Amino acid sequence: MFSPTDGINLELVGTLDPLRARRAKLGDHTVIWGRTVQGHGMSLFGSLEVESSLSGSGEKTSQYKSHWMVLGEHLPASDAVTFHELEVGMFNLEEWIGPSGIVHDTSTEPPYQSSIRYQQLPPLKFRIGSFEASAESNGLWNHSVMPPSAGVRVKSIVRFKTPNVQTLDKFLNGPVRSLQYFLQLATSSRVPMTSLIGTSKRFVQLLPNGESWPVPVPILFTQKKAVPLPDRKHPANMLFSAMGLGATLPSRMNSWQEGRDRYPATLDFHFSTGPLDSDVPLEFRFFSAFVACEAYHRATHSNEQLNPAEYKRRRELLLSSVKTDPEVFEWANEKILGNEPSARRRLQDLYDEQPEIIRTLVEDTFIRRAVATRNRGIVHAHNNNPDVFTGRELFRATSLLRLIIQGCLLREIGFSPEEIGSMVPKITDYRILTTS
User: Fold this and answer.
1) Pairing mode of beta strands 193-199, 217-221
2) How far apart are CA 357 and CA 77, in angstroms?
3) Span 335-383, pLDDT tens digits
4) What would the pLDDT profile of 76-111 be if each residue is shown by its tens digit?
5) Residue of 396, 411, 68, 88 lying closest to 220 (CA atoms)
6) What dihedral angle (degrees, nearest 10) is formed by the CA atoms of 16, 19, 25, 29?
7) Pairwise CA distance, residues 80 & 83, whole Å
8) Which residues pair with 7 in a beta bridge?
9) Regarding predicted confidence, which is higher, 199 or 155?
10) CA-CA distance, 374 to 181, in Å (whole number)?
11) Using CA atoms, how far apart are residues 87 and 198, in angstroms rounded to an integer?
């Protein structure tokens, strides 16, 4: 049984204990091989025994949970799951790409007739690092609609290609995650993956004409909060879409990937939670947002608060005042280190760079109180500090930090302050701040 949130559950009559690898603990198995009812091989990875019991008839039963599974092949280890091409489906991808390809024709002369047809659109091509990417939409006739009517179902995928074989992990933590973050920024919402299919020269089928055809290999996998799916968004309600970016899409994606290479921690912390993730503790969401801001500033701004010469002068001046006391001098020499900007300075710099529509939401005390809240959680300082955000104020502060980092990311991929200003009202965090 498979669930995109819970992963793969394997129920067995009996147990795999006799086959347990020498180094495995309990009933855990690095790889489990099996076959589907159709006779196709399957490989389960990262399998943990979660339950072992006796059935009513006295037979031993076991239940295993796996993080992901490859259908069609028996593979010895996770690093053997390699592909030349990976096809990925993502939620809301159809709307983000833009035109559906559905064409409505109506005759202009009697007898008047109307018809619907599907016109294949050219793929959108771009690159993410060393991977070629192609966003494609395909229309399928939906004959489940009662005749004489019929419908067209449009499905969009992104196809990633690489000349050299790559492991699944390289695909997922490389171009797939990069595009997923890009779409989360565009839609201001979660973007679960809906399908994952790999092809490689390793697994092919020989055709009657003697040519070989790569066999698609479906992959089932666990995702954080994949269901229930979020609401679909119309392109007009997105910050930007592929159709809106037009010919600038490749350059925007290139800027995005350059940013991901420079400040990966910023994207990981920011997109690890959403603006309305009620199942994630609010304090964790606040610290994720604050660390995302700090990591971004560290990667994109100077990490010297004073110029080196002035810093050296001030340090030597302070040390010279205690040089007569060796013990104090040694202590001061260890403590007066680092010329990095303070957390308050970093947050102030990011605030100063925001468009007016974001700056007007920031109260005079916000930066001081945000730093106090951060310090309390990280270094347990000032437990009774009245500046610390709690409750509703903490919720709003988290949304404001998230909004600031989104303003930074939009600027990084080339949008002007005026363009960002027009996008901000569509961001979920902004809507929270202006309605709560």
Assistant:
1) antiparallel
2) 51
3) 776 777 889 999 999 999 999 999 999 999 999 999 999 988 776 655 6
4) 888 889 999 999 999 999 899 987 666 667 777 777
5) 68
6) -70
7) 9
8) 3
9) 199
10) 25
11) 6
